[in-house]
Amino acid sequence: MKGLIVIAAIAAGCSAWTYTDNMTASASISINAAQKYQTMVGGGCSGAFGIACQQFGSVGLSPANQEIVTQILYDENIGGLSIVRNDIGSTPGHVPGDVSSILPVCPETPAGPFNYVWDRNDTCQLQLTQTALKYNPNVYVYADAWSAPGCMKTVGSEDYGGFICGVRDSNSPNCTYDWRQAYADYLVQYVKFYEQEGIEVSLLGAWNEPDFNPVTYASMQSDGYQAKDFLELLYPTAKAAFPNISVSCCDATGARQERNILYELDQAGGSGFFDVATWHNYQSNPERPFNSGGKPNLMTEWADGTGPWTPTWDVSGQLAEGFQWALYMHNAFVNSDTSGYTHWWCAQNTTGDNALIRLDYDSYFVSARLWAFASYFRFARPGSVRIEATSSAENLYVSAYVNKNGTVAIPVVNEAHFPYQVTIDLTGINATTAAAYLTDNNHNVSFVGQTQLAGKLQATVEPRAVKTFFLS
Length: 472
Ligand SMILES: *[C@@H]1O[C@H](CO)[C@@H](O)[C@H](O)[C@H]1NC(C)=O
Ligand SMILES: *[C@@H]1O[C@H](CO)[C@@H](O)[C@H](O)[C@H]1NC(C)=O
Ligand SMILES: *[C@@H]1O[C@H](CO)[C@@H](O)[C@H](O)[C@H]1NC(C)=O
Ligand SMILES: *[C@@H]1O[C@H](CO)[C@@H](O)[C@H](O)[C@H]1NC(C)=O
Ligand SMILES: *[C@@H]1O[C@H](CO)[C@@H](O)[C@H](O)[C@H]1NC(C)=O
Ligand SMILES: *[C@@H]1O[C@H](CO)[C@@H](O)[C@H](O)[C@H]1NC(C)=O
Ligand SMILES: *[C@@H]1O[C@H](CO)[C@@H](O)[C@H](O)[C@H]1NC(C)=O
Ligand SMILES: *[C@@H]1O[C@H](CO)[C@@H](O)[C@H](O)[C@H]1NC(C)=O
Prior knowledge:
By secondary structure, this protein is an alpha/beta fold. It is 21% helix and 29% strand. The chain is globular. The two termini are 23 Å apart. Mean pLDDT is 95; it is low at 1-6 and 8-16. It binds 2-acetamido-2-deoxy-beta-D-glucopyranose (8 copies). One 2-acetamido-2-deoxy-beta-D-glucopyranose binds at residues 33, 402, 406, 428-430.
Protein backbone atom coordinates (compact mmCIF):
# COMPACT_ATOMS: atom_id res chain seq x y z
CA MET A 1 0.00 0.00 0.00
CA LYS A 2 1.84 3.02 -1.28
CA GLY A 3 2.20 5.84 1.19
CA LEU A 4 1.46 3.72 4.24
CA ILE A 5 4.16 3.68 6.87
CA VAL A 6 4.23 1.14 9.66
CA ILE A 7 5.48 1.73 13.16
CA ALA A 8 4.93 -1.48 15.06
CA ALA A 9 6.34 -1.97 18.49
CA ILE A 10 4.32 -4.39 20.55
CA ALA A 11 4.98 -4.19 24.26
CA ALA A 12 6.01 -7.30 26.10
CA GLY A 13 2.87 -8.44 27.89
CA CYS A 14 3.30 -7.71 31.59
CA SER A 15 -0.20 -6.48 32.08
CA ALA A 16 -2.36 -7.55 34.99
CA TRP A 17 -5.02 -8.05 32.35
CA THR A 18 -5.39 -10.93 29.92
CA TYR A 19 -6.43 -10.74 26.32
CA THR A 20 -6.08 -13.00 23.31
CA ASP A 21 -2.56 -12.41 22.04
CA ASN A 22 -3.51 -12.30 18.42
CA MET A 23 -6.61 -10.24 18.82
CA THR A 24 -6.29 -6.88 17.16
CA ALA A 25 -8.77 -4.38 15.98
CA SER A 26 -8.34 -1.61 13.52
CA ALA A 27 -9.34 2.00 13.82
CA SER A 28 -8.89 5.12 11.79
CA ILE A 29 -7.75 8.46 13.12
CA SER A 30 -8.07 11.79 11.30
CA ILE A 31 -5.99 14.84 12.10
CA ASN A 32 -6.83 18.21 10.58
CA ALA A 33 -4.51 21.14 11.29
CA ALA A 34 -6.95 23.62 9.73
CA GLN A 35 -9.31 23.28 12.71
CA LYS A 36 -7.64 24.95 15.70
CA TYR A 37 -8.64 25.02 19.37
CA GLN A 38 -6.94 26.20 22.60
CA THR A 39 -3.31 27.17 23.14
CA MET A 40 -1.54 24.90 25.61
CA VAL A 41 0.33 26.01 28.73
CA GLY A 42 1.50 22.60 29.98
CA GLY A 43 1.60 20.39 33.05
CA GLY A 44 2.72 21.32 36.55
CA CYS A 45 2.72 20.88 40.30
CA SER A 46 3.10 22.80 43.56
CA GLY A 47 5.30 22.98 46.65
CA ALA A 48 2.74 24.81 48.80
CA PHE A 49 2.44 24.41 52.60
CA GLY A 50 6.18 23.94 53.08
CA ILE A 51 6.32 20.79 50.93
CA ALA A 52 8.85 22.55 48.66
CA CYS A 53 11.21 22.44 51.66
CA GLN A 54 11.06 18.63 51.55
CA GLN A 55 12.15 18.76 47.90
CA PHE A 56 15.06 20.96 49.01
CA GLY A 57 16.52 19.01 51.88
CA SER A 58 14.40 19.33 55.03
CA VAL A 59 13.93 15.53 55.31
CA GLY A 60 17.33 14.45 54.02
CA LEU A 61 17.18 14.64 50.23
CA SER A 62 20.78 15.36 49.25
CA PRO A 63 21.66 18.40 47.13
CA ALA A 64 22.44 16.09 44.18
CA ASN A 65 19.06 14.37 44.44
CA GLN A 66 17.27 17.73 44.91
CA GLU A 67 18.57 18.58 41.45
CA ILE A 68 17.69 15.18 39.96
CA VAL A 69 14.13 15.20 41.36
CA THR A 70 13.50 18.71 40.01
CA GLN A 71 15.05 17.80 36.66
CA ILE A 72 12.86 14.67 36.38
CA LEU A 73 9.80 16.90 36.83
CA TYR A 74 10.71 19.86 34.63
CA ASP A 75 13.24 18.74 32.00
CA GLU A 76 11.73 18.86 28.50
CA ASN A 77 13.08 15.36 27.85
CA ILE A 78 11.92 13.74 31.10
CA GLY A 79 8.75 14.83 32.95
CA GLY A 80 8.23 17.81 30.65
CA LEU A 81 6.35 19.96 33.21
CA SER A 82 6.17 23.75 32.83
CA ILE A 83 3.87 25.13 35.55
CA VAL A 84 4.84 25.91 39.17
CA ARG A 85 1.89 26.87 41.37
CA ASN A 86 3.10 28.85 44.38
CA ASP A 87 1.11 29.72 47.50
CA ILE A 88 1.16 33.44 48.36
CA GLY A 89 1.45 32.74 52.10
CA SER A 90 -0.72 34.36 54.74
CA THR A 91 0.94 33.14 57.95
CA PRO A 92 2.69 35.77 60.11
CA GLY A 93 6.20 34.49 60.90
CA HIS A 94 7.54 30.99 60.28
CA VAL A 95 5.25 28.11 61.24
CA PRO A 96 6.10 24.59 60.00
CA GLY A 97 3.54 23.47 57.42
CA ASP A 98 2.38 27.02 56.67
CA VAL A 99 3.60 29.57 54.14
CA SER A 100 4.97 32.82 55.57
CA SER A 101 3.30 36.08 54.62
CA ILE A 102 5.17 39.03 53.13
CA LEU A 103 3.12 41.15 55.58
CA PRO A 104 3.85 39.64 59.00
CA VAL A 105 2.42 42.68 60.81
CA CYS A 106 -0.79 44.23 59.56
CA PRO A 107 -1.33 47.98 59.92
CA GLU A 108 -4.28 49.26 61.97
CA THR A 109 -6.00 50.67 58.91
CA PRO A 110 -5.74 50.27 55.11
CA ALA A 111 -3.91 53.63 55.10
CA GLY A 112 -0.82 51.71 56.17
CA PRO A 113 2.08 51.64 56.66
CA PHE A 114 2.65 48.27 54.96
CA ASN A 115 5.99 46.91 56.07
CA TYR A 116 6.47 44.13 53.57
CA VAL A 117 9.20 41.57 54.26
CA TRP A 118 10.91 39.52 51.59
CA ASP A 119 13.08 36.69 52.95
CA ARG A 120 14.27 35.52 49.49
CA ASN A 121 12.96 32.07 50.38
CA ASP A 122 9.14 32.08 50.32
CA THR A 123 8.98 28.85 52.36
CA CYS A 124 11.27 27.16 49.79
CA GLN A 125 9.00 28.05 46.86
CA LEU A 126 11.61 30.48 45.49
CA GLN A 127 14.18 27.68 45.34
CA LEU A 128 11.63 25.36 43.72
CA THR A 129 10.83 28.00 41.10
CA GLN A 130 14.49 28.83 40.44
CA THR A 131 15.46 25.18 40.11
CA ALA A 132 12.50 24.39 37.85
CA LEU A 133 13.53 27.37 35.67
CA LYS A 134 17.02 25.89 35.39
CA TYR A 135 15.58 22.83 33.66
CA ASN A 136 12.77 24.65 31.84
CA PRO A 137 13.49 28.34 31.15
CA ASN A 138 9.86 28.88 30.10
CA VAL A 139 8.25 27.86 33.39
CA TYR A 140 4.81 29.46 33.84
CA VAL A 141 4.63 30.69 37.43
CA TYR A 142 1.16 30.77 38.95
CA ALA A 143 1.17 32.79 42.20
CA ASP A 144 -2.03 32.03 44.06
CA ALA A 145 -3.22 33.05 47.53
CA TRP A 146 -5.16 30.71 49.80
CA SER A 147 -6.19 33.60 52.05
CA ALA A 148 -5.72 37.33 52.52
CA PRO A 149 -3.86 38.30 55.71
CA GLY A 150 -6.28 37.69 58.61
CA CYS A 151 -6.58 41.40 59.39
CA MET A 152 -8.26 41.95 56.02
CA LYS A 153 -10.99 39.34 56.58
CA THR A 154 -14.35 38.96 58.31
CA VAL A 155 -13.01 36.10 60.46
CA GLY A 156 -9.86 37.98 61.54
CA SER A 157 -7.65 34.98 60.75
CA GLU A 158 -6.10 33.24 57.74
CA ASP A 159 -8.02 30.06 58.69
CA TYR A 160 -11.80 29.52 59.05
CA GLY A 161 -12.74 30.75 55.53
CA GLY A 162 -14.41 34.15 55.78
CA PHE A 163 -14.59 36.99 53.24
CA ILE A 164 -12.40 39.91 52.24
CA CYS A 165 -13.63 42.99 54.14
CA GLY A 166 -15.32 45.21 51.56
CA VAL A 167 -17.00 42.64 49.30
CA ARG A 168 -20.80 42.40 49.52
CA ASP A 169 -22.10 40.65 52.65
CA SER A 170 -18.78 41.03 54.46
CA ASN A 171 -20.61 42.12 57.59
CA SER A 172 -18.43 41.54 60.63
CA PRO A 173 -17.21 43.51 63.61
CA ASN A 174 -13.77 42.77 62.15
CA CYS A 175 -14.56 44.76 59.00
CA THR A 176 -14.26 48.35 60.18
CA TYR A 177 -12.56 49.17 56.87
CA ASP A 178 -12.69 48.13 53.23
CA TRP A 179 -9.45 46.20 52.74
CA ARG A 180 -9.92 45.25 49.08
CA GLN A 181 -7.39 47.67 47.59
CA ALA A 182 -4.88 46.77 50.30
CA TYR A 183 -5.25 43.08 49.44
CA ALA A 184 -4.83 43.83 45.71
CA ASP A 185 -1.66 45.84 46.45
CA TYR A 186 -0.38 43.02 48.64
CA LEU A 187 -0.80 40.43 45.87
CA VAL A 188 0.98 42.72 43.40
CA GLN A 189 3.80 43.27 45.92
CA TYR A 190 4.41 39.51 45.97
CA VAL A 191 4.78 39.58 42.17
CA LYS A 192 7.25 42.48 42.53
CA PHE A 193 9.41 40.43 44.91
CA TYR A 194 9.62 37.66 42.30
CA GLU A 195 10.43 40.28 39.66
CA GLN A 196 13.34 41.41 41.89
CA GLU A 197 14.60 37.82 41.71
CA GLY A 198 14.39 37.95 37.92
CA ILE A 199 11.31 35.71 37.81
CA GLU A 200 8.20 36.63 35.87
CA VAL A 201 4.89 35.61 37.43
CA SER A 202 2.56 34.70 34.57
CA LEU A 203 -0.69 34.27 36.46
CA LEU A 204 -1.95 35.83 39.70
CA GLY A 205 -4.80 34.46 41.80
CA ALA A 206 -6.60 35.73 44.90
CA TRP A 207 -8.38 32.54 46.09
CA ASN A 208 -8.01 28.82 46.58
CA GLU A 209 -11.24 26.80 46.67
CA PRO A 210 -13.48 29.75 47.66
CA ASP A 211 -16.54 27.46 47.58
CA PHE A 212 -15.15 25.42 50.48
CA ASN A 213 -14.29 26.21 54.10
CA PRO A 214 -11.74 23.70 55.45
CA VAL A 215 -11.62 25.58 58.79
CA THR A 216 -8.19 24.24 59.77
CA TYR A 217 -5.92 25.88 57.21
CA ALA A 218 -5.54 29.10 55.22
CA SER A 219 -8.73 29.67 53.26
CA MET A 220 -11.13 32.36 52.11
CA GLN A 221 -14.62 32.10 50.69
CA SER A 222 -16.25 33.90 47.78
CA ASP A 223 -19.17 33.50 45.46
CA GLY A 224 -19.08 34.98 41.96
CA TYR A 225 -20.64 38.29 43.07
CA GLN A 226 -18.05 38.76 45.80
CA ALA A 227 -15.36 37.76 43.31
CA LYS A 228 -16.53 40.64 41.11
CA ASP A 229 -16.27 43.04 44.06
CA PHE A 230 -12.60 42.17 44.51
CA LEU A 231 -11.49 41.48 40.94
CA GLU A 232 -12.71 44.92 39.82
CA LEU A 233 -9.90 46.33 41.97
CA LEU A 234 -7.27 43.60 41.53
CA TYR A 235 -7.52 43.50 37.75
CA PRO A 236 -6.59 47.15 37.02
CA THR A 237 -4.05 47.18 39.88
CA ALA A 238 -2.26 44.11 38.54
CA LYS A 239 -2.32 45.30 34.92
CA ALA A 240 -0.99 48.75 35.88
CA ALA A 241 2.02 47.16 37.57
CA PHE A 242 2.52 44.23 35.16
CA PRO A 243 0.89 44.74 31.76
CA ASN A 244 1.63 41.15 30.71
CA ILE A 245 0.31 39.41 33.80
CA SER A 246 -2.86 37.32 33.69
CA VAL A 247 -5.40 37.30 36.51
CA SER A 248 -7.21 34.09 37.42
CA CYS A 249 -10.67 33.28 38.73
CA CYS A 250 -11.14 31.33 41.07
CA ASP A 251 -9.67 27.84 41.73
CA ALA A 252 -13.00 26.28 42.77
CA THR A 253 -12.98 22.71 44.14
CA GLY A 254 -14.48 21.28 40.96
CA ALA A 255 -15.32 22.15 37.37
CA ARG A 256 -19.04 22.49 38.14
CA GLN A 257 -18.29 24.69 41.17
CA GLU A 258 -16.07 26.87 38.96
CA ARG A 259 -18.78 27.14 36.32
CA ASN A 260 -21.18 28.36 39.00
CA ILE A 261 -18.78 31.08 40.14
CA LEU A 262 -18.21 32.15 36.52
CA TYR A 263 -21.97 32.47 35.89
CA GLU A 264 -22.35 34.65 38.97
CA LEU A 265 -19.29 36.72 38.09
CA ASP A 266 -20.77 37.34 34.66
CA GLN A 267 -24.20 38.27 36.10
CA ALA A 268 -22.48 40.71 38.44
CA GLY A 269 -20.80 42.38 35.46
CA GLY A 270 -17.34 41.04 36.32
CA SER A 271 -16.54 38.89 33.30
CA GLY A 272 -13.98 41.45 32.12
CA PHE A 273 -11.91 41.19 35.31
CA PHE A 274 -10.13 37.88 34.75
CA ASP A 275 -8.04 36.25 32.03
CA VAL A 276 -7.91 32.56 32.93
CA ALA A 277 -10.58 30.35 34.51
CA THR A 278 -8.83 28.12 37.05
CA TRP A 279 -10.44 25.06 38.60
CA HIS A 280 -9.59 21.94 40.57
CA ASN A 281 -10.82 18.46 39.77
CA TYR A 282 -11.65 17.27 43.31
CA GLN A 283 -15.42 17.63 43.47
CA SER A 284 -16.51 17.45 39.82
CA ASN A 285 -15.17 16.72 36.34
CA PRO A 286 -14.96 19.14 33.39
CA GLU A 287 -17.15 17.24 30.87
CA ARG A 288 -18.07 20.19 28.63
CA PRO A 289 -16.73 23.53 27.40
CA PHE A 290 -16.25 26.18 30.09
CA ASN A 291 -18.53 29.21 30.38
CA SER A 292 -15.48 31.46 30.43
CA GLY A 293 -16.52 33.68 27.54
CA GLY A 294 -13.81 32.29 25.28
CA LYS A 295 -11.04 32.79 27.85
CA PRO A 296 -8.66 29.89 28.53
CA ASN A 297 -9.09 27.51 31.44
CA LEU A 298 -6.52 25.60 33.51
CA MET A 299 -6.90 22.69 35.90
CA THR A 300 -4.72 24.02 38.71
CA GLU A 301 -4.82 21.35 41.44
CA TRP A 302 -5.72 17.73 41.92
CA ALA A 303 -4.43 14.56 43.50
CA ASP A 304 -5.75 11.50 45.24
CA GLY A 305 -5.54 13.13 48.64
CA THR A 306 -6.47 10.15 50.79
CA GLY A 307 -5.04 7.08 49.06
CA PRO A 308 -1.74 5.28 49.65
CA TRP A 309 1.22 5.99 47.34
CA THR A 310 0.29 4.70 43.88
CA PRO A 311 3.30 4.57 41.54
CA THR A 312 1.82 2.16 38.97
CA TRP A 313 0.60 2.78 35.45
CA ASP A 314 -2.20 0.22 35.09
CA VAL A 315 -2.21 -2.62 37.58
CA SER A 316 -5.15 -2.08 39.93
CA GLY A 317 -7.44 0.26 37.99
CA GLN A 318 -7.25 2.64 40.96
CA LEU A 319 -8.09 6.27 40.14
CA ALA A 320 -4.57 7.56 40.79
CA GLU A 321 -2.76 5.23 38.39
CA GLY A 322 -0.90 6.88 35.52
CA PHE A 323 -3.14 5.45 32.82
CA GLN A 324 -6.24 6.97 34.45
CA TRP A 325 -4.52 10.37 34.53
CA ALA A 326 -3.84 10.16 30.80
CA LEU A 327 -7.59 9.75 30.28
CA TYR A 328 -8.42 12.61 32.66
CA MET A 329 -6.11 14.88 30.68
CA HIS A 330 -7.52 13.77 27.35
CA ASN A 331 -11.06 14.52 28.51
CA ALA A 332 -10.16 17.95 29.87
CA PHE A 333 -8.15 18.97 26.80
CA VAL A 334 -10.71 17.72 24.26
CA ASN A 335 -14.08 18.18 26.00
CA SER A 336 -13.34 21.37 27.92
CA ASP A 337 -10.55 23.00 25.91
CA THR A 338 -8.37 22.98 29.02
CA SER A 339 -4.91 24.47 28.43
CA GLY A 340 -2.97 22.86 31.26
CA TYR A 341 -3.09 20.33 34.05
CA THR A 342 -1.50 20.85 37.45
CA HIS A 343 -0.96 18.03 39.93
CA TRP A 344 -1.10 18.93 43.60
CA TRP A 345 2.37 18.50 45.15
CA CYS A 346 5.56 17.96 43.19
CA ALA A 347 7.68 15.90 45.61
CA GLN A 348 6.82 14.96 49.20
CA ASN A 349 8.29 12.75 51.93
CA THR A 350 5.22 10.61 52.45
CA THR A 351 3.54 7.23 52.16
CA GLY A 352 0.45 8.99 50.76
CA ASP A 353 -0.47 9.93 47.23
CA ASN A 354 -0.46 13.72 47.01
CA ALA A 355 2.79 14.11 45.03
CA LEU A 356 4.20 13.08 41.68
CA ILE A 357 7.45 11.99 43.31
CA ARG A 358 7.60 10.29 46.70
CA LEU A 359 10.60 11.07 48.89
CA ASP A 360 11.92 8.90 51.71
CA TYR A 361 14.91 10.65 53.25
CA ASP A 362 17.43 10.59 50.36
CA SER A 363 15.48 8.17 48.15
CA TYR A 364 12.91 9.12 45.53
CA PHE A 365 10.23 7.20 43.63
CA VAL A 366 8.48 8.47 40.50
CA SER A 367 4.74 7.91 40.06
CA ALA A 368 3.57 6.79 36.62
CA ARG A 369 1.24 9.80 36.78
CA LEU A 370 4.28 11.83 35.72
CA TRP A 371 4.56 9.68 32.59
CA ALA A 372 0.96 10.54 31.75
CA PHE A 373 1.90 14.24 31.92
CA ALA A 374 5.05 13.58 29.90
CA SER A 375 3.13 11.66 27.20
CA TYR A 376 1.39 14.95 26.46
CA PHE A 377 3.75 17.72 27.46
CA ARG A 378 7.17 16.47 26.34
CA PHE A 379 5.73 16.85 22.85
CA ALA A 380 2.93 19.43 23.05
CA ARG A 381 5.11 22.20 24.42
CA PRO A 382 3.96 25.54 25.89
CA GLY A 383 2.38 27.62 23.14
CA SER A 384 1.29 24.62 21.07
CA VAL A 385 -2.23 24.76 19.66
CA ARG A 386 -4.67 21.87 19.82
CA ILE A 387 -6.02 20.85 16.42
CA GLU A 388 -8.84 18.57 15.30
CA ALA A 389 -8.31 14.85 15.93
CA THR A 390 -10.97 12.17 15.71
CA SER A 391 -10.96 8.42 16.25
CA SER A 392 -13.33 5.82 14.81
CA ALA A 393 -13.25 3.82 18.07
CA GLU A 394 -14.75 5.10 21.30
CA ASN A 395 -12.09 3.40 23.47
CA LEU A 396 -9.20 4.83 21.43
CA TYR A 397 -8.77 8.47 22.48
CA VAL A 398 -6.79 10.91 20.35
CA SER A 399 -5.83 14.55 20.56
CA ALA A 400 -3.28 16.53 18.54
CA TYR A 401 -1.21 19.69 19.00
CA VAL A 402 0.89 21.83 16.63
CA ASN A 403 3.98 23.37 18.21
CA LYS A 404 5.13 26.89 17.36
CA ASN A 405 7.73 25.46 14.94
CA GLY A 406 5.20 23.27 13.10
CA THR A 407 6.07 19.95 14.75
CA VAL A 408 2.99 17.95 15.77
CA ALA A 409 2.26 15.82 18.84
CA ILE A 410 -0.43 13.12 18.64
CA PRO A 411 -0.97 11.29 21.95
CA VAL A 412 -3.22 8.26 21.45
CA VAL A 413 -4.69 6.52 24.51
CA ASN A 414 -5.81 2.92 24.00
CA GLU A 415 -8.21 1.97 26.78
CA ALA A 416 -8.89 -1.49 25.29
CA HIS A 417 -7.17 -4.66 26.50
CA PHE A 418 -6.08 -5.43 22.94
CA PRO A 419 -3.88 -3.56 20.47
CA TYR A 420 -5.31 -1.32 17.80
CA GLN A 421 -3.94 -1.13 14.29
CA VAL A 422 -4.47 2.50 13.41
CA THR A 423 -4.32 4.42 10.18
CA ILE A 424 -3.74 8.10 10.81
CA ASP A 425 -4.86 10.48 8.10
CA LEU A 426 -2.98 13.78 8.22
CA THR A 427 -4.45 16.94 6.73
CA GLY A 428 -2.56 20.23 6.73
CA ILE A 429 0.60 18.82 8.26
CA ASN A 430 3.98 19.30 6.57
CA ALA A 431 6.10 16.98 8.70
CA THR A 432 8.35 14.40 7.07
CA THR A 433 9.30 12.20 10.01
CA ALA A 434 7.21 10.36 12.62
CA ALA A 435 8.66 9.11 15.89
CA ALA A 436 6.69 7.02 18.39
CA TYR A 437 6.98 7.04 22.21
CA LEU A 438 5.27 4.41 24.34
CA THR A 439 4.02 4.54 27.93
CA ASP A 440 2.56 1.42 29.54
CA ASN A 441 3.41 -0.85 32.47
CA ASN A 442 6.90 -1.39 31.03
CA HIS A 443 7.69 1.89 29.32
CA ASN A 444 8.01 5.47 30.55
CA VAL A 445 7.58 7.55 27.38
CA SER A 446 10.16 5.35 25.66
CA PHE A 447 11.22 5.96 22.09
CA VAL A 448 10.09 2.87 20.14
CA GLY A 449 10.50 3.73 16.47
CA GLN A 450 10.87 6.37 13.82
CA THR A 451 10.10 6.50 10.14
CA GLN A 452 9.83 8.80 7.14
CA LEU A 453 6.33 10.07 6.44
CA ALA A 454 4.83 9.96 2.99
CA GLY A 455 1.09 10.20 3.38
CA LYS A 456 -0.91 8.26 5.91
CA LEU A 457 0.75 6.88 9.03
CA GLN A 458 -0.02 3.31 10.01
CA ALA A 459 0.90 2.08 13.47
CA THR A 460 0.07 -0.21 16.35
CA VAL A 461 -1.16 1.26 19.61
CA GLU A 462 -0.58 -1.18 22.45
CA PRO A 463 -3.31 -2.10 24.96
CA ARG A 464 -3.73 0.08 28.08
CA ALA A 465 -1.07 2.44 26.77
CA VAL A 466 -0.43 5.93 25.53
CA LYS A 467 1.52 6.12 22.31
CA THR A 468 2.56 9.61 21.35
CA PHE A 469 3.48 10.23 17.74
CA PHE A 470 5.80 13.19 17.25
CA LEU A 471 5.86 14.47 13.71
CA SER A 472 8.69 16.75 12.58
C1 LIG B 1 -1.01 -16.13 16.76
O1 LIG B 1 -0.82 -16.17 15.34
C2 LIG B 1 0.32 -16.91 14.96
C3 LIG B 1 0.52 -16.74 13.46
O2 LIG B 1 -0.72 -16.69 12.82
C4 LIG B 1 0.13 -18.38 15.35
O3 LIG B 1 1.27 -19.14 15.01
C5 LIG B 1 -0.06 -18.44 16.86
O4 LIG B 1 -0.35 -19.76 17.27
C6 LIG B 1 -1.22 -17.53 17.31
N1 LIG B 1 -1.24 -17.45 18.78
C7 LIG B 1 -2.37 -17.53 19.48
C8 LIG B 1 -2.22 -17.42 20.98
O5 LIG B 1 -3.45 -17.69 18.96
C1 LIG C 1 14.19 28.52 53.38
O1 LIG C 1 13.49 28.46 54.60
C2 LIG C 1 13.39 27.15 55.15
C3 LIG C 1 12.51 27.26 56.39
O2 LIG C 1 11.24 27.74 55.99
C4 LIG C 1 14.77 26.64 55.47
O3 LIG C 1 14.69 25.32 55.98
C5 LIG C 1 15.58 26.62 54.18
O4 LIG C 1 16.90 26.23 54.45
C6 LIG C 1 15.61 28.00 53.54
N1 LIG C 1 16.20 27.88 52.21
C7 LIG C 1 17.21 28.66 51.82
C8 LIG C 1 17.71 28.43 50.43
O5 LIG C 1 17.66 29.52 52.53
C1 LIG D 1 -12.91 38.67 64.49
O1 LIG D 1 -11.53 38.35 64.57
C2 LIG D 1 -11.15 37.64 65.74
C3 LIG D 1 -9.65 37.41 65.67
O2 LIG D 1 -9.01 38.62 65.54
C4 LIG D 1 -11.88 36.33 65.81
O3 LIG D 1 -11.56 35.65 67.00
C5 LIG D 1 -13.38 36.56 65.74
O4 LIG D 1 -14.04 35.31 65.67
C6 LIG D 1 -13.72 37.37 64.51
N1 LIG D 1 -15.11 37.68 64.46
C7 LIG D 1 -15.96 37.10 63.61
C8 LIG D 1 -17.37 37.57 63.68
O5 LIG D 1 -15.63 36.26 62.82
C1 LIG E 1 5.44 41.93 27.76
O1 LIG E 1 5.63 40.89 26.83
C2 LIG E 1 6.23 41.34 25.63
C3 LIG E 1 6.20 40.18 24.65
O2 LIG E 1 6.73 39.04 25.24
C4 LIG E 1 7.65 41.83 25.93
O3 LIG E 1 8.26 42.28 24.76
C5 LIG E 1 7.56 42.95 26.94
O4 LIG E 1 8.87 43.33 27.33
C6 LIG E 1 6.79 42.55 28.16
N1 LIG E 1 6.57 43.70 28.98
C7 LIG E 1 6.84 43.73 30.26
C8 LIG E 1 6.55 45.01 30.98
O5 LIG E 1 7.33 42.76 30.88
C1 LIG F 1 9.92 10.56 55.64
O1 LIG F 1 9.32 9.38 55.13
C2 LIG F 1 9.66 8.21 55.87
C3 LIG F 1 9.04 7.04 55.12
O2 LIG F 1 7.68 7.25 54.93
C4 LIG F 1 9.11 8.33 57.28
O3 LIG F 1 9.48 7.20 58.04
C5 LIG F 1 9.67 9.59 57.92
O4 LIG F 1 9.06 9.78 59.18
C6 LIG F 1 9.42 10.80 57.05
N1 LIG F 1 10.12 11.94 57.63
C7 LIG F 1 9.49 13.06 57.93
C8 LIG F 1 10.33 14.13 58.55
O5 LIG F 1 8.30 13.25 57.70
C1 LIG G 1 10.28 22.14 17.44
O1 LIG G 1 9.77 22.31 18.75
C2 LIG G 1 9.74 21.09 19.49
C3 LIG G 1 9.01 21.42 20.78
O2 LIG G 1 9.62 22.47 21.45
C4 LIG G 1 11.14 20.60 19.72
O3 LIG G 1 11.12 19.39 20.45
C5 LIG G 1 11.77 20.33 18.37
O4 LIG G 1 13.11 19.97 18.54
C6 LIG G 1 11.69 21.56 17.48
N1 LIG G 1 12.08 21.12 16.16
C7 LIG G 1 12.80 21.86 15.35
C8 LIG G 1 13.08 21.28 14.02
O5 LIG G 1 13.17 22.98 15.67
C1 LIG H 1 2.17 23.71 6.42
O1 LIG H 1 2.67 24.63 5.47
C2 LIG H 1 1.71 25.60 5.06
C3 LIG H 1 2.34 26.40 3.93
O2 LIG H 1 3.58 26.92 4.35
C4 LIG H 1 1.34 26.45 6.26
O3 LIG H 1 0.38 27.41 5.90
C5 LIG H 1 0.80 25.57 7.36
O4 LIG H 1 0.56 26.35 8.52
C6 LIG H 1 1.77 24.45 7.69
N1 LIG H 1 1.13 23.53 8.62
C7 LIG H 1 1.54 23.35 9.87
C8 LIG H 1 0.77 22.39 10.70
O5 LIG H 1 2.52 23.93 10.33
C1 LIG I 1 12.46 5.26 32.65
O1 LIG I 1 12.67 3.98 32.11
C2 LIG I 1 14.02 3.73 31.80
C3 LIG I 1 14.05 2.42 31.07
O2 LIG I 1 13.37 1.44 31.79
C4 LIG I 1 14.84 3.72 33.08
O3 LIG I 1 16.19 3.50 32.79
C5 LIG I 1 14.68 5.07 33.75
O4 LIG I 1 15.32 5.05 34.98
C6 LIG I 1 13.22 5.41 33.94
N1 LIG I 1 13.21 6.80 34.39
C7 LIG I 1 12.73 7.14 35.55
C8 LIG I 1 12.90 8.60 35.91
O5 LIG I 1 12.18 6.36 36.31
